[in-house]
Design a protein that fits this description.
Helix content is 27%, strand content 20%. It is globular, with a radius of gyration of 21 Å. The strands form five sheets. Strands 4-1-5-7-8-9-12-13 form an eight-stranded mixed beta sheet, with helices on both faces. Strand 17, helix 7 and strand 18 form a beta-alpha-beta unit. It is of the alpha/beta class. The protein contains nine helices and 18 strands. Helix 8 runs antiparallel to helix 9.
Length: 345
């Protein structure tokens, strides 16, 4: 790759970063990329070429779903040879889901795909959007002396930190540091200089071909445990017609009640081919199902270990594996094998 040929495709899906306030109602409404460029004239100062692609109409991130993820995969695939990197402007609410999904759907990725957005619209005086956008573009265009991208994976950049997409969770609806990667170090930090944590960055095997995927199965539920959870609640969720997998959000290092009815329902669901994956409700830490008896009983019931996976990553990885038609036993096995650096085993 010739460094002089660096070019970035900026994809605008929607979200707060691309909104402007209606002077009559005060409501935030979507505006287009031309206005975005007007508010960020610094875009013209980059030494590399930037093209733009816009969702029409733009989507609020609350509406982003596997169909929209497939659209993004199509865009990246259709332009993969033409551009050296991609920056996706996205609403913050489901950004971690989209980033996780793309990390699995873009197999063999060897170019940066950076998702970013903002807590304040780009046209607001104190917006965080301008800095997030400009730094994301700079990172997407960064390469080493051989012309190879410095960060060839799906990432989220927010408030000075570049994080692996499938390790990231939105933790704050109010502050600019809205995202955190609790169980994996940041990939880069932007201060006066951008410092890259090269040891943590995922580099694909040079012989592995880039392969886009579009098959996702959404017959999944998330079951969050809480003290006093009723049998009929658990039974209703596990009895959903067509259900194929459940992300079970447990306590601490993967613990759950030892009530006989609870373990019976889990064992019955597993026996019927429903894949249940154990992830912790805690922000940081990992599931260790053999550490305490409560976790060990889940293991005995057939529940799979989710290790230090985020809920967003577990959900999208299950959608991916089920979409590709793997049998329940193989899905359980693959959930314990990192596909894109999403878990530490």
């Amino acid at each position: 790759m010739n460094p002089d040929n660096t070019s970035i495709l900026l994809i605008y899906t929607g979200g707060t970063i691309g909104m402007i306030e209606n002077p009559e109602t005060g409501a935030l409404e979507n505006f287009n990329l031309e206005q975005l460029q007007k508010h960020v004239p610094e875009l013209h100062n980059f030494t590399f070429h930037i093209d733009t692609y816009q969702f029409d109409p733009p989507m609020d991130s609350s509406d982003m779903d596997p169909e929209a993820w497939c659209k993004l995969v199509h865009i990246v695939n259709d332009h993969y040879e033409k551009y050296t990197g991609f920056v996706i402007l996205h609403g913050t609410d489901t950004m971690a889901f989209t980033a996780s999904a793309l990390s699995f759907m873009l197999e063999g990725l060897k170019k940066p795909v950076i998702l970013t957005g903002s807590q304040l619209p780009i046209g607001v005086l104190r917006t965080d959007g301008k800095e997030n956008l400009l730094t994301s573009l700079e990172i997407a265009g960064a390469h080493n002396a051989d012309g190879n991208p410095l960060v060839p994976e799906v990432c989220i950049f927010f408030e000075n930190h570049l994080m692996r997409g499938n390790r990231t969770t939105k933790i704050n609806a109010e502050n600019f540091n809205a995202f955190r990667s609790f169980n994996y170090p940041i990939l880069a930090e932007a201060g006066i200089h951008i410092k890259y944590n090269n040891v943590q960055i995922l580099f694909e095997d040079a012989n592995r071909k880039f392969k886009p995927h579009y098959l996702m199965d959404t017959n999944i539920a998330v079951l969050k445990l809480f003290p006093g959870i009723q049998e009929n609640v658990v039974s209703s969720i596990l009895g959903i017609e067509g259900l194929k997998a459940v992300v079970l959000e447990t306590y601490g290092s993967g613990n759950a009640p030892r009530k006989p009815w609870f373990l019976h329902l889990l064992r019955k669901a597993c026996d019927e081919g429903i894949v249940i994956v154990n992830v912790t409700q805690c922000n940081a830490g990992t599931v260790e199902m053999e550490r305490y008896e409560t976790g060990y009983q889940l293991l005995q019931a057939g529940v799979a270990c989710g290790y230090d996976s985020t809920t967003e990553s577990a959900v999208t990885k299950l959608m991916f594996l089920l979409g590709h038609g793997y049998a329940p036993d193989e899905v359980r096995e693959r959930m314990s094998i990192p596909m894109a650096g999403e878990i530490t085993v």
